[in-house]
Amino acid sequence: MEENKKIKVAMICHFSNAEVREHLPLSNGRLYRFMRRVLKLPMKRQGYSDLAPWDSSLIRDFKQRDDIELFVISAHSGLKKRTVSFNMDNVNYLFVRCNVATMLKHIVKKPDLWLRLNPMTPTIVNAVKNYNPDLVLLVGAENAYYSSSVLSINEYPVYVLCQTIYNDPAFKEAGYDNAINAAVERKIFDKVQYVGVFSDKHYNLLKKIPYDKNIFRFRFSAENTLEFEERPIADKPIDFINFALQMSYAKGFEDCVKALAIVKKHYPNVKLHLVDGGPDDYRSYLKGLISELGLEENVTFVPFFADRSDLFAHLQMVKFAVLPCKLDNLSGTQIQSMRYGLPVVCYKTTGTPSLNADKECVLIAEMNNIEDLASKMLFLLDNPEKAEELRCNSRQYIGKLDNATKDNIDCLVRNFHSIIENYKYNVSVPVEQLY
What we know:
By secondary structure, this protein is an alpha/beta fold. Helix content is 41%, strand content 18%. α5 (111-117) packs across α9 (179-191).
């Protein structure tokens, strides 16, 4: 790269936040929901909410640098137009309507046919070519509706940041068996030369695929902490919360309810809030389970908050977060809860023990062990001093994450330079940047 020349990055992703939604003409979603109902597809809650905060954090950090020129191409549901473009804070954005592409995934079951029909691909590919970047940054290969576009991009190096890896047997075991997502992700790994991972779990999954090209080490930027007044745990009226954009078995919602039935034997008035982003059929199943266990007075469904600030304001009413996620290395909701002062109960995954590497920050139950999960919930209720210790330790953990953000983004930009040099001039990638 020429000295002092900005790197032109085309970032392909799917995110939403309140700031960008101010620029987007969004429909009321009635027609889309009607079509899904007619086609008997899973139904989601109406409305729009913040999505993929790690993308917002990356964009925040890129736009603060003087060596990056950024063009963000993002999927977004509910756009009244096929595409919407604007500039905000010196970042160019192109949002592409994704409703048809995501609906087609439920109708067209053959991956190769779906790839040919996906209406988002030509739009994204043409936008990239018109921008003529030095590098294409894809965040999330598992989301086929937008990630499939890189299969048609051949003129530029493509660097894939793995949010997760869909070709993980655990996804199928948990009921996530989308052949299109799996097939497209696999095609992407077969094609691209540069992939970034942040955990041993994802590295090992890549090697098993097998992927034998360049695997970089990176970490996502830390989220901004919104200002809030930290209330004493004893003053909070809600005992537990589980929250996710899409409630599901894999996010531990069912396990929370079953564990609460055990906790209720000791604390009859215990309260659990389920922050509820759908889908409707799973919510109905949970309501039946709650009724069966006699928990109607103990469990409250709360609609998912459109704005993160409203969600985190609600968290200040809650004592503890019970987040027994089954698939993620680490769940973003676990980190968010620690950031906003909620002691966390979670399951043991490949990543959650790292939260306690220096000091105990979270209580970890054995995977799928409802009794152990309930015992950890009871421990928090019984031991306010220990709960406060966990909150204090979590505060220190989050401080370290925030302090590492500049190093993380510097590392990512070094990856960019090495990828461009390798792609254009066949310069070897420095070993220290590889996983």
